[in-house]
Write a structure and sequence with these properties.
The complex is a heterodimer of chains A (151) and B (295). By secondary structure, chain A is mostly helical. Chain A is 58% helix and 0% strand. Chain B has a four-stranded parallel β-sheet. In chain B, strands 6-5-7-8 form a four-stranded parallel β-sheet, sandwiched between helices. With 295 residues, chain B is an alpha/beta fold. The chains are: A mainly alpha (151), B alpha/beta (295).
Chain lengths: 151, 295
């Protein structure tokens, strides 16, 4: 997984354009895209206990402006795969996956939601049992499975 | 008649149904047929890609395959679903190794992979495929006194290299063009082309609110009559976020927040209650009183 991004992170020239255009960086000094890239270049394991990797808002402004087309958010996604497998991940993400595994969607269409929808003449779009079965199977045969088993 | 597989995603059908209600009304008026499929699941959103890229991509790919099997293109309302599904298609078509890995995961779930399907967001369908000229023809209400702060959001336009929605992904004018065609006035304000902060709610609520409130203040300064979004996450940030900002930050700003399809519906002369406007957290009545119907 990391070999797929190794080349891409090497091309960063540390110009700081990503930080300059980053709204999160302006509001929260813990987060600096360039610093995350550089830490990954030196030793990705140093990011394992770094909470700021979860603060990117994925607005892609840095990606639009990067003169070397580093595409920071997409690289961060791959870095997060590595970091998450070492146990650093937001509880909200784990819950999201658990819901998708159970209902096929992040939010269950409960009785109340279905009643409100019916008032407006909207159909019931909940994923069928067969759909949920396929989603469960995808989760179980992919790298997502470890985040379900951990509970 | 054009026909689409209507991809609702997770948030809209449960937390923000007025987007769906108004979209169905407006598209019906424009002669677009929508098919609701119980074979669709969650799109496979960004947080899932952060946990496991290939597993998330397989969930996205499955949705593409469902629509491809039916011979229908996908129409999304949510910008997040749009970006996820379109980028999944591009990734699977451009990267042979990735495609192989995802194909194996899908096959073991009993699904055949197909990316032979187009992915459209409703704003693109309206502005480009149907065209603003056609929208203009249907306008029956007078919106000329309405100043609109459109909030384009991120994932309808960026990453621009992949999505190709706008010539300038850092300053997209798509929503403004639609608002103009409806006869209303789009305005500029500080922070218009930034992120709403929605992706960070649930990760860092304080930071997420800061990102929204900055924009809310500059929109209020410019005297906008309403905020218009085309994404449920941006909508919830501004609509419910205003209530939270009142409570937690003593920020006393009240601006009606509308979905793009709601403003179009109002312009088409559809009654507000038929568009689901009464489901909003923000009070829309100051806006409605400025619109003269059948003008």
């Amino acid at each position: 997984m990391l070999s797929e991004i190794a080349e891409k992170i090497q091309i960063c020239v540390a110009c700081g354009t990503c930080v300059g255009g980053c709204l999160v960086s302006r509001l929260d000094k813990r987060f600096r895209p360039m610093r995350i890239i550089h830490t990954a270049v030196v030793d990705v394991n140093r990011l394992i206990n770094e909470p700021s990797v979860w603060l990117c808002s994925y607005c892609y402004i840095c990606s639009e402006r990067c003169p070397k087309a580093v595409e920071f958010p997409d690289i961060l996604t791959r870095l997060r795969n590595y970091i998450a497998k070492h146990g650093n991940l937001p509880a909200a993400y784990k819950m999201l996956l658990a819901n998708i595994s159970k209902h096929g969607t992040a939010l269950e269409l409960d009785e109340f939601a279905l009643m409100e929808r019916e008032e407006y003449g909207l159909p019931d779009p909940s994923p069928s049992q067969e759909t949920i079965k396929e989603i469960k199977s995808i989760i179980n045969t992919s790298g997502l499975s470890v985040f379900i088993r951990e509970g | 008649m054009r026909k689409y597989a209507f991809f609702l995603g997770c948030t809209i059908p449960v937390r923000s149904i007025s987007y769906e209600i108004s979209a169905r009304k407006v598209l019906e008026a424009l002669g677009i047929e929508l098919v609701t499929l119980k074979e669709f699941s969650c799109c496979g959103p960004a947080p899932l890609y952060s946990l496991d890229f290939y597993g998330a991509l397989a969930i996205s790919a499955r949705n593409l395959s469902v629509a491809a099997e039916k011979g229908l293109d996908i129409l999304t309302l949510c910008s997040g679903c749009f970006e996820t599904l379109l980028r999944a298609k591009i990734e699977l078509e451009q990267n042979v190794n990735t495609r192989k890995k995802v194909e194996d995961i899908l096959n073991s779930a009993g699904r055949k992979l197909s990316t032979n399907v187009n992915v459209k967001h409703i704003a693109i369908l309206l502005a480009k495929d149907i065209g603003v000229g056609e929208l203009k023809k249907k306008v029956s209400a007078d919106l000329k006194d309405i100043s609109v702060a459109t909030f384009p959001g991120c994932h309808l336009f960026r990453p621009g290299r992949a999505l190709r929605t706008s010539d300038n992904p850092q300053k997209p004018k798509l929503l403004d063009k639609i608002v103009e065609a409806l006869g209303a006035k789009p305005i500029e304000y500080t922070g218009k082309y930034e992120c709403c902060g929605g992706t960070l709610s649930g990760i860092d609520q304080e930071l997420s609110m800061k990102m929204m409130v900055e924009k809310l203040r500059s929109i209020a300064e410019e005297g906008a009559d309403c905020i218009v979004t085309a994404c449920p996450f941006c909508f919830i940030q501004f609509d419910m976020g205003q209530q939270a900002a009142k409570r937690d930050l003593k920020e006393n700003i009240s601006i009606p927040v509308l979905y793009l399809t709601e403003l179009i519906g109002l312009a088409f002369g559809i009654p507000p209650e038929e568009l689901g406007l009464n489901t909003h957290a923000s009070d829309v009545s100051p806006l409605l009183s400025k619109i003269s119907r059948d003008g």
